[in-house]
Amino acid sequence: MQQEHGAGPRVGVIMGSRSDWDTLRHASDTLTALGIAHECRVVSAHRTPDLLFEYAQQAAGRGIEVIIAGAGGAAHLPGMTAAKTRLPVLGVPVQSRALQGVDSLLSIVQMPRGIPVGTLAIGEAGAVNAALLAAAILALHDVDLAARLDDYRARQTAAVLADSLEP
Ligand code: RP5
Fold first, then answer.
1. Which domain holds residue 86?
2. Which NCBIfam families does the annotation name (predicted)?
3. 91-120: per-residue pLDDT in tens?
């Protein structure tokens, strides 16, 4: 069923620190390439916990349909966001300096039963794939976006097939 949506953001991209932007901007760029209205904000589970609760509790009412949450280290942002909203939350583990993002990955993926976070790969690949997964979710009730997503994938396939290893 095709659903009407307003001009406001449909995807919320949040991250624990300004330093996560180098990773999460790849999610934003991919959403832009697919023509998906979105917003990007720093919301820290540890440094701005009240803002996190406010953001998560108000997101659905503001028309947000999917939240992409990226964080590094003891990465509680995706899980705590998921705890405060029924919207699907996609977690992107940011590559940390100390443990190369394994700490981020494990703290995002190992959610207790009952509150899921869809966890993507560490770093840039995870950020891009979070955007593509958000697009796939929105495309379930948006035929125009479904066509744009099919086109994105077809162009990716064509680029691989046209590639050559010849010097
Ligand atoms: C986390 O701490 C953030 O998600 C970030 O990945 C990490 C380090 O933050 P900064 O010290 O760079 O602000 O909350």
1. 11-162
2. purE
3. 999 999 999 999 999 999 999 999 999 999
